[in-house]
Amino acid sequence: MIRRDGESQRCDILISEGRIKRVGTAPVCDPAYEVIDAEGGMILPGLVDVHVHLREPGFSYKETILDGTRAAAHGGFTTVCPMPNLKPAPDTTEHLQEQLDIITRDACIEVLPYATITLKRMGDELVDYAALSPQVVGFSDDGSGVQSEEVMERAMRGISATGKVLAAHCEVNTLLRGGYIHDGEYARAHGHVGICSESEWGEVARDIRLAEATGCRLHICHVSTRESVELVRQAKARGVAVTCETGAHYLAFCDSDLQEDGRFKMNPPLRTASDREALLEGIKDGTIDCIASDHAPHSAEEKSRGLRQSAMGVTGIELSLAATYTYAVKRGIITLDHMIELMAETPRRIFGIAGGIKPGDRADLTIVDFDQSYIVDPEKFLSKGKSTPFEGQRLYGVVKATISSGKIAYIAQ
After folding, report:
1. So what's the pLDDT on residue 30?
2. What is the pLDDT of residues 149-178, one digit of tens each?
3. What is the pLDDT of residue 35?
4. Active-site annotation holds for 261
5. Which positions ≥6 away from 168 have C-beta within 8 Å?
6. Does the pTM exceed 0.85?
7. Contacts of 63 (CB under 8 A, 6+ apart)
8. φ/ψ of residue 179, rounded to 5
9. Of the candidates 368, 365, 392, the residue with the CA atom closest to the CA atom of residue 379
């Protein structure tokens, strides 16, 4: 069953030389072709995750491009965009090439990296955007907000000249005050130091204002607060070239679900129930453009230190599709077609990524059985990272096969 243009239809897809050659109803009988039986599944445009951490080069004990892309294919993704908090950070063409060489050698799906906004992601000196832009999907200092307004304005003007997207991690350092979970009832009841919502939306407001002044294409990463959603909504109404993403864990959980366990710790943190409702409304009305996993694997030891001491970040790429379907589609908040837009079509449009489900398109396809469910068991992840708040949850939507550029990247056994 193929899903496109809001309709489902039974058909066969012929793939040759990495592209879709035909979409029709006649079966392919040529024995030279490998046949994938998608009976019981739905064929979607290949999923795109514009915010992942593959940790290589520099932190291969957390994840490698080999393991991370296998995990992505397991989750139904045919393209991922890794963030640049690496060692070395991709802030020069030479440093970027180190990452590109590993991608060429090990990736089983398309990997389109970001370069940094500033040298070493320090927020001070700008990188050479013109030199880096031909080989990257966009620019980001993810993991760090650019604190200086003057630096961010100059960065936006430079990135705007390349036509690329600036993906902003919005965080005001002076408002963090040592916090590590949301500054809410759970933090106060359990003696934790909280992170206020303004640390996010304060910089969202600034970056929208600068994007409006410079004409830069701004994409706001991992939106978690209701104020951020409203700021983006108002900016879009004014015609500002701003888009944003949120993650499935922010749609499923809030700070009342927290436990004294590192698998509930990420940045930005799980916010309040009203923030979660605002995010759900934001995906419903189109304010939020993409679902991105912010897949952030760490070692078991780094995630074993509770909420206070564990590293920020959870594993997500193998669950993002099923979690979004379970918590947003099955609950009637959005349609299946809207989910496909959020996870496949809109990310391609924003970042200029190839692929589709029509003759002539690059053959990036995801086959999913949405009637099948499973209990989340991190030991079955292909990622090195095993820490997720979804552990033990029942999710609907099992990936049966992932085809990237006409090649099978994952097939269920």
Report:
1. 62
2. 999 999 999 999 999 999 999 999 999 999
3. 84
4. no
5. 140, 145, 146, 203, 204, 207, 218, 219, 220, 221
6. yes
7. 53, 54, 55, 56, 297, 383, 384, 385
8. -75, 160
9. 392
Calculate the CA 158 to chain-centre distance. Answer: 25
92-111 pLDDT, tens digit each: 999 999 999 999 999 999 99
Instruction: Tell the residue number behind the tokens 């990036």, with chain if given.
Output: 364
The CA–CA distances, whole Å, from 135 to 56, 101, 111, 167, 369 equal: 17, 12, 11, 16, 35
Region 141-155: mean pLDDT is: 98
- CB count, 10 Å around CB of 10? 9
pLDDT at 4: 65
CB atoms inside a 10 Å sphere around CB 300:
12
d(CA 205, CA 227): 9
> Which residue, chain included where needed, has tokens 């997207």?
165
Query: Does residue 314 contact residue 222 with C-beta atoms inside 8 Å?
Result: no
Residue 391: partners with Cβ closer than 8 Å, 6 or more residues away? 263, 376, 377, 378
**Residues 6 or more apart from 162 whose CB is under 8 A from it?**
129, 130, 133
- Tens digit of pLDDT for each residue in 177-189? 999 999 999 999 9
Peptide linkage before 88 cis (omega within 30 of 0): yes
The catalytic position among 67, 141, 294, 364 is 294
Nearest to 366 by CA among 313, 315, 325: 325
CA-CA-CA-CA torsion for 260, 264, 269, 273, nearest 10 degrees?
Answer: -90
And the tokens for 77? 């993704």
Q: What order do you get walking across the sheet with 77-82 strand by strand?
A: 47-52, 77-82, 110-111
